[in-house]
Amino acid sequence: MAFFFILIAFLWFIRETKAILFWLYLWQLKEYRFGRFFDHFRTYQGKKLFFNFFFIFKIILFLYVLSLAFYPKLLAWQLYALWIVILAVIYFFEDAKTVLDFFQKNLKKPVLTQKGKILILVSLIVEFLFLFILFQKFQKIKLFYWFSFSLLSFDILTPFLVSGIVLLFQPLTVYWQNKIIKRAKEKRAKIKDLIVIGITGSYGKTSTKEFLNTILSSKFKVLSTPAHQNTDIAIAKLILEKLNEDTEVFITEMAAYKRGEITSACQIVKPKIGILTGINEQHMATFGSLENIIKTKYELIESLPEMGFAIFNGDNQYCRELYKKAQLSKRICYTKFLASAQEVVVGDFWAKEVKAEKESLSFKIFSRRWGEIFEFKVNLLGEHHAQNILMAAIIGKEVLGMTLEE
Questions:
Q1: How high is the pLDDT of residue 372?
Q2: 205 and 163 in one domain?
Q3: In terms of Cα–Cα distance, which of 264, 224, 266 is closest to 247?
Q4: Closest CA to 135 of 250, 40, 230, 6
Q5: Does 27 share its domain with 95?
Q6: Which of 21, 61, 224, 360 could form a disulfide with 251 if both were Cys (CB 3.0 to 4.6 A apart)?
Q7: For residue 25, what pLDDT is reported?
Q8: Same domain, 378 and 229
Q9: Which first-to-last residue range defines the signal peptide (predicted)?
Q10: Based on the domain organization, do 20 and 150 belong to the same domain?
Q11: What's the CATH number where 234 sits?
């Protein structure tokens, strides 16, 4: 009988370890923010985590096993083997998928940061202790039923157990993050002549940052935030690791999922230039309303100094409204002509004759201020890139004194 205990425990352990790593990966991906983590389950991918064949079948099996308590003992004993064999078969197929994912390098697991290592260690200790206690308590032939049922129960509750462990460490995480942010602020304050450019919006942040980095790097020593590292704590870590006295321009992409997060990032980096790439209803679930999204994105503009400079995407309705509201040096640019009976838009810059071809994008920049036209041609797909390149080019020429040729 010991063989069957070991067999099902082994199959369960492989499956359970994969599940623990996945849920820790998801929490890390959502930056350990409950709002972002919960919002994930509104998406198709999030719903599939619970509404899939294996999970639903396990729930049915769980309810079936509970119902056996209402049957006579003789009948229940006859049914022991049936559901336990089914459970073992399920774990076998899940383990086979785990092995396949491992060799194909598709296994989802958290990045081994200091916090990630601690959470993995604690979660695996809980898993080991649970299995050890089960062996000590139920390693008798008549208790194989409850042994297997306990494994199934732990399996189903894994998302909640892992989430509980993550949330248990949150107070320590907040304390640790505050220390990092404080150190980053102190280091940033020592670099007096640094030009900081903040970029925010519901879309277009990353591409605008990359275009700006490419343009400015030809003349300046530039540091920019890496992909997906756009929160206050990620920016603070980058400052501590890579910002130095030689850096002339620091380009920071800023993301937010609630009010005050853009302000928090700005308090760290002290931007002099702000770019608002566009606003839509993305992350509505975490913000609560479109009004909150608009106010949060505008925090970047509000954080700029009196002598600061702001650029707005004129193709976006909400950016046009915020452009009118801003009380500092500002520019607005378009790739579309917008006019109505109530409002005729006269912008500072236009991208005209936008042509998206198979392997390239071309357009002409017209400036009411410069009184000149310059043609751009880049190896990119998609007309939407014209707006992002336009905003990046304006920063280079208007603020940093570069020529359009540069």
A1: 60
A2: no
A3: 224
A4: 6
A5: yes
A6: 224
A7: 95
A8: yes
A9: none
A10: yes
A11: 3.40.1190.10
Residues 125 and 159 in one domain: yes
Q: Rg of the chain's alpha carbons, rounded to an integer?
A: 28
- pLDDT over threshold 60, residue 340: no
Whether 181 maps to a domain, the answer reads no
- The model's pLDDT over 134-162, given as tens digits with 9 standing for 90+, comes to 888 776 655 777 888 899 999 999 999 99
Q: Which residue has the tokens 């119902």?
A: 67
SS3 250: strand
User: What does the mean pLDDT of the chain come to?
Assistant: 84
Domain boundary residue among 115, 139, 174? 174
CA 205 – CA 213 distance, rounded (Å): 12
Contact 312, 323 (CB under 8 A): yes
395: how many CB neighbours lie within 10 A of its CB?
A: 25
Distances in Å between the alpha carbon of 82 and those of 11, 72, 233? 17, 16, 52
Residue 314 neighbours by CB distance under 10 Å: 24
Domain assignment of residue 200, yes or no = yes
Q: Say whether both 215 and 72 belong to one domain.
A: no
**DSSP SS3 for 352:** strand
- For residues 143 and 199, membership in a common domain is answered with no
Torsion 332-333-338-344 (CA) sign: positive
Higher-scoring residue by pLDDT: 190, 31: 190
Within a domain: residue 183?
no
Phi, psi of 234 (to 5 degrees): -65, -40
Q: Is 358 left (phi over 0), alpha (psi -120 to 50) or beta?
A: alpha
Q: CA–CA separation, 240 vs 365, rounded Å?
A: 38
Report helix, strand or coil for 127.
helix
Beta bridge partners of 223: 250
Domain count, the chain: 2
At a CB cut-off of 8 Å and minimum separation 6, what does 114 contact?
Answer: none
User: Cα(212)–Cα(252) distance, rounded to whole angstroms?
Assistant: 11
Q: Are residues 147 and 228 in the same domain?
A: no
Structural domain including 245 reads 192-400
